[in-house]
Predict the 3D structure of the following.
Amino acid sequence: METLGTLQGELHFLCGQDSAVSFPQWRNPSRLKKLATWWYGARPGASALPPAHFRRIPGRFPAISSSKLRSDLALGRDCTNDLHPDVAAYIDQHRLYGKRMVTRLSTTLSASRYAHTLNVASLAEALARRWGADPAKALLAGLLHDAGRRFRPHELARYARRRRLAVPERAIILDLDPMLLHAYASADIARREFGVRDPEVLNAIRRHTLGDRRMSLLDKILYVADACALDRSHETSAATRDLAFVDLDAALKRCVSDKLIHAVSREAWLHPLTVHLWNSLAPR
């Protein structure tokens, strides 16, 4: 029994099946378990069962995943058929679940770049689910990975100087190809304008273009998602996208190879980070 002033009563906590399954990852689950009676609504098609202390709510529930609904909202998709009109209106009014972010991105990026952003975020989230990374982090990194593309090359150069961005070989990039700065500018914008503080997300954004000597799982996911998102039209993109769900490292290697081949065909300068990344993947 919990006492609130002079009121007494039993606490019951209700949630969806996906949330219930994740209960062991909640903060202080052993303490929470004692505070209430826990119930979950079973979602059709869901296979994983929640911990034993959860009771199943009788009845049938719609085949709606709250986590998928949140990601759909963050990707700007129409969710009116899955939400009560009052709930949808409240979310729109207060720009919840990433709506403020996608609204901002849609007004600062070109239409094609914004479409690419949504494609990358969607693929990154799917790959995160496949390979056991955090889908929310992958989605966030995907949404913000090209935030710096709002700038033209000379504006990126000015931004990098003004913000004193720590970019390897920055002087050469400023001289040869300022657009290579956009990943570092995007991470800076993610932190300053959108309040992202997670170093894993920020590092993935920084590394999605040039790569790095060491790539985390999230780094690899975003790099691959950016290289072979649904809007990419080069001839290997579809096959690489399929490969990414079977062998992420093989897909990463193919993405880096394609990027190097394209750069060499243009007789472009190769950044040392990309060369180091390729050498770490190449057979020895």
Notes: The mean pLDDT is 90. DSSP finds 15 helices and five strands in the chain. The first strand starts at residue 2 and ends at 4. Strands lie at 2-4, 7-9, 12-16, 37-41, 54-56.
